[in-house]
Amino acid sequence: MAKYECTVCGYVYDPAQGDPENGVNPGTRFEELPSDWVCPLCGVEKTEFEPVNE
Fold it and tell me: For residue 47, what are the contacts with CB-CB under 8 A and spacing of at least 6?
C-alpha cells in the first residue's frame, strides 16, 4: 500500500498505521479515506497529498 505525503507540511500518511486518532483504522488505503478526512497536522484536504516514491 502506497504512502502519501502532504505537500503543505510534509506529514506522511502510512496506511499500515492509519490515523487512529481521527477514526481511521490501520490497513486503510489512502483512496479509502473518507472524503472529509484532512491532514492531522495542518488541516488541508486529501487533494493536497501526493504519492511517496519509495
Answer: none
Instruction: Quickly list H helices, the chain.
Output: none
Report pTM.
0.92
- Sheet arrangement for strand 4-6: 12-13, 4-6, 49-51
Q: What is the DSSP letter of 30?
A: G
Per-residue model confidence (pLDDT) at position 1: 87
Give the separation between CA 51 and CA 19, rounded to whole angstroms. 17
Distance CA 43, CA 53 (A): 23
- Rg (C-alpha) for the chain, rounded Å, is 10
Instruction: Give dist(CA 31, CA 15) in Å, integer.
Output: 10
